[in-house]
Amino acid sequence: MVAIKAHFDGKTIVPDEPVNLPANQRLIVHVQPVSDHPTDFRSWIGLGNAAPQNPAPRFKSHRDLWE
Questions:
Q1: What's the predicted TM-score (pTM) here?
Q2: For residue 55, what are the CA distances in angstroms to 11, 19, 39, 65?
Q3: What SS3 state is found at 18?
Q4: 3-class DSSP state for residue 8?
Q5: Which residues on adjacent β-strands are paired with residue 42?
């Protein structure tokens, strides 16, 4: 299985990078929309937006750890 980044131009799905496939290759396409903003890691693993208990002093705020 190969995963490629692409976008929908309103009519067709267009690969964002070259795809090395033979002409007329039959495919099954799974579509997973991608967010335009970065994923909040703490929310993604189910920790909500809580600040770390002991943030490293070299960071200005707990947000610097996750962004």
A1: 0.46
A2: 47, 43, 20, 8
A3: coil
A4: strand
A5: none
Nearest Cα residue to 31 out of 58, 55, 56, 4: 4
Amino acid identity for residue 57 in this structure: P
**Mapping DSSP to helix (H, G, I), strand (E, B) and coil, where does residue 26 land?**
coil
Q: In this predicted model, what pLDDT tens digit does every residue of 13-57 receive, in sequence order?
A: 999 999 998 999 999 999 888 877 666 666 667 666 556 565 556
Do the beta carbons of residue 40 and residue 49 sit within 8 Å?
A: yes
In this predicted structure, the answer to whether residue 5 has a pLDDT above a threshold of 80 is yes
Tokens encoding 13: 């799905």
Half-sphere exposure (CA, 13 Å, Cβ side) for 45? 5
